[in-house]
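Ligand: cytidine-5'-triphosphate. Inputs:
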Amino acid sequence: MDLILVALSGIFLFLPALVPNSAAVLFGGGTPVDFGRTWRGKRILGDGKTWTGLIGGVAAGTSLGIILVLITMGLDVQAPLNWGEGLEALGVVFALSLGSLLGDMVGAFIKRRLGMERGHKAPILDQYDFVAGALGLTALLFPAWVASRYVSGESIIALIALLVFVPVLHRVVNIIGFKMGKKKEPW
Ligand code: CTP
Ligand code: MG
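Predicted complex:
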């Protein structure tokens, strides 16, 4: 396959993991996931991680994923440009969405342990926590899918494309969210 196409497929297949972050900003504002509890004098996760953000974000990412799965199946798009065969595809898009926000929460947990307040800028962690979470959970549940789309042979180009473009995309989307008044900081 054309290397540009492999790179684009890496981003395209990752859409169910990209949407939850933006959706969480729109759905957030409710009860914090840690219920306000602290650990060793600092919040476990902080007010930036809420149940409505988590559930709404996963629902949004999975919904988009299901629509894309139905479209690609309808068009009979073959591997590696799809989320897998049959029910596996639904599992993969759910794992990408949930893993994304679980990774985001692990990032928040680390930030709180480092003494950073909610919304404090943490380069690398802010841009990659959800990438690691999404790929990590999906690799755990669907190792063959992740290997064939992001690791083996020329598909490693898809992983490189993710690592290069996701931080750029993340930043652009956050600046838009900030300008719209939906996000407190532009990162
Ligand atoms: N959000 C949410 N629930 C989540 C994730 C995000 O409600 N599980 C919402 C919060 O309103 C959060 C916003 O999305 O403030 C932006 O997310 P993010 O940048 O990840 O959080 P920060 O506010 O920067 O907090 P932290 O320092 O903990 O990353
Ligand atoms: Mg942040």
